[in-house]
Amino acid sequence: xxxxxxxxxxxxxxKNIARDITASLEALSGRALEVGPGTxxxxxxxxxxxxxxxxxxxxxxxxxxxxxxAYPILADKLYQADxxxxxxxxxxxxxxxxxxxxxxxxxxxxxxxxxxxxxxLIPEVVGMVQKEVAQRMAANSGNRTYGILSxxxxxxxxVEYLFTVDENVFIPPPKVKSAVVxxxxxxxxxxxxxxxxxxxxxxxxxxxxRKIIGNSLKPLLGKQTLNHPLQTLRPERLNIEQFExxxxxxSKILKP
Length: 256
What we know:
Layout: E1 11-12, H1 15-23, E2 31-35, H2 41-46, E3 53-58, H3 61-70, E4 78-80, E5 98-102, H4 108-117, E6 124-130, H5 131-138, H6 148-154, E7 157-165, E8 170-171, E9 178-185, H7 195-206, H8 213-216, H9 218-221, H10 240-254
Parallel strand pairs: 2-3, 2-5, 3-4, 5-6
Antiparallel strand pairs: 1-8, 6-9, 7-9
Helix pairs in contact: 7-10
């Protein structure tokens, strides 16, 4: 097997780490989708679990061919596709399932945004990503790594940074350290504000994170004026509830 740079492939070779990753998956639904199995180092341990109906999605044809030979038991449960393009309602016929994988670093953020879009289907995620991405995902307000991904994930999931993974356990070694994170769906059923506007405000403010919120929201406000104490802060100071409060205030201003 040859790792392809264009696909962001770095194959994990340490079986102890693979065992720790797969053991972190609770999979209470009894179903799981592995994203980017590559050489099957996680697949090997997942298939040994009697509590799991496993399916996998892989874009690389060479990996697909290898996996069919190494794990014939997967057979028609191995899809050659791009996870980002999949209709996840069809994966387990509309039933909930967990997601696990050594995610390609070049699309890891897009993978998590796809998961957010399908949050009612996916109650749990265990994945390996670049360490800096994992830190952003788990960051709290006031932290310099806190940002768009932190807020949008933590709206719907409890995020846990599990452990750091050294670069020398991959083929080829990446130039950065990696980390394993775990997401579990929280109790939130809906946003306490206009969700689309909430997302727009979060993105607008963090795209200009050095500015105070009042200044970064001027293009959104147009000729309207925002008069709220939160507008004097930078976005990394606000938690989710404060962003909801800010969204409700803007909804009143923009409604006419």
